[in-house]
Amino acid sequence: MSYKTAKKNHHKDREYIDRAPKSADNNDDDDDDDDEFHSADEDNEDSKPSEQIRIPLAMWDVNQCDPKRCTGRKLVRHGFVRPLKLGNHFGGLILSPMGQKCVSPEDKQIVLDSGIAVVDCSWAKLDETPFSRMKGKHLRLLPYLVATNNVNYGKPCQLSCVEAFAAALAIVGLRDYGSILLDKFKWGHGFYTLNSSLLDAYEKCDSAQAIIECDKRFRTGEEIFTDSYQPNRDMPPSESSEEEEEEEEEENLHIKDINNFENQNMAASKQVGKMASKLKAAASKVVLQPYFQMDIPAGQASPAPPLGPILGQHSLNIAQFCKDFNERTKDYKEGIPLPCHVYVKPDRTYELVFYTPTVDHLLLQAAGLKRPALNIGKEPGGRLSVKHIYEIAKVKIQDEPYQGLTMKDMCRVLIQHANKLGMEVVSNLNVEEHRQYMDDLRILHEKQAKEAEEAQQAKLLRGATAAAAAEKSGKK
Q: b/e string for 101-134 if b means 16 or more Cβ within 10 A?
């Protein structure tokens, strides 16, 4: 029986999938191809029919990963995870780079009630991932952990989908569920083994802030971590009393108990500290991704941030790179932003590939604007005709990232991008109406620039007044 046939037999109204994994006999040909990369021990699946995860697990897939290596898709095939479409809302935790808060044990009730969702995307294509279309209010980040999957083994923080699920489940105290997911992959057991000390420390934290502090100590490998960091340390206050001997004896016993508690926590913290030192040493040996991309203005590459630090991290000759880039872009109008892909070779040389100017720049130039709207949707942001879109599409479709698109699809991408900038795309532009529209828009931009300048002056004046008042009070 094929996977598609088996899937039709499931109850369509179930809130989430809660069933045992399929047997080896029912796997389709795609699972056989996946064995090379991350397949489970299929011989043991029939012996575990009672394995169940009683919380919803979901995933947004943006089709950026190799299907044969995608752990998220394999979990979907095994029935543990349900796929979400872009634009769908998820009420549970969403593990996303857009999160502002770390996963912590405080999130356990949210996980039990609404589950966990991940974003299946490529680490090299985060800029192209539509995170804004993955809706939910519980966005979370994962703290420092080391990947053990076959693609990013040994690289900090570059976890696969199953590792992200397992990490979040372990931190909120549901490690057994994470083990069920990891058991589906031959290398899965290594994730909890390698990160056991880190996960133990994170699980004992009582808040997201404590998770962040613990994360910082793991990343930096500070020696003070072994002496000062003790998760969830709750030391009762000691009170001295010299009025009665009984109270003194009770206090001494109380302090003795606290000291024993401290010694136990100190021993555990030292073990965690040793593991942090080992992980820091391993991380220092990790080779950076031999590729990065950024927008660089034509003819204006310089060692200043952000370009200089990025080149320094990859041990590239900064002066030579800037000279090379400026020479190769001398035929472009100076200052035009060019998307650049830099491939770093093992001998620290590089291959520089740059494409046509950015979509934002071309759209703004076509609309005759220097900047997009400040309040998108609340003020006019410019107008473009369909002919403008078509001409820009003829330029951008030459770039390698867009070569797989048809002209129609390329135009749709540009129209969506123009709408995000607050621009309006119309069939035709009337000359007189457009001239009046641009005059009104210019007046609005001048007014906004004047208000911004006044706000800046007022801020400087407040700062000067506060400094003068502080100086005056200090003299008194």
A: ebbbbebbebbeebbbbbbbbebeeeeebebeeb
Q: Is 163 helix (H, G, I), strand (E, B) or coil?
A: helix
How many Å apart are CA 301 and CA 307, to the nearest integer?
8
Q: What's the rounded Cα separation, in Å, for the pair 39 and 32?
A: 8
List of residues 6+ apart from 95 with CB closer than 8 A: 103, 116, 117, 118, 119, 140, 141, 142, 164, 168
Q: How far apart are CA 51 and CA 47, in angstroms?
A: 10
Radius of gyration of the chain (CA): 29
3-state secondary structure of 174: coil
**Looking at this protein, which amino acid is placed at residue 122?**
S
Q: What is the pLDDT of residue 323?
A: 92
- For 35, the token pair is 């064995």
Tokens, residue 346: 């093992």
pLDDT score, position 127: 67
Q: Which of 38, 74, 75 is nearest to 57 (CA)?
A: 75
CA angle 359, 360, 363 (to 5 degrees): 80
Pairing assessment for the beta strands 350-354 and 383-385 based on DSSP bridges: unpaired
HSE, CB side, 13 Å, CA atoms: give it for residue 146: 24
Q: Return the pLDDT at 116.
A: 92
- Phi/psi at 295 (nearest 5 deg)? -90, 125
Residue with tokens 């796929």: 83
Element (DSSP H or E) covering residue 294 = strand 291-297
Residue 103 tokens read as 């996963």
Q: Report the C-alpha gap between 458 and 451 in whole angstroms.
A: 10
pLDDT tens track for 402-448 = 888 899 999 999 999 999 889 999 999 898 999 999 999 999 999 99
* 385 beta partners: 426
Which of 390, 358, 349, 375 has the alpha carbon at shortest distance from 444? 375
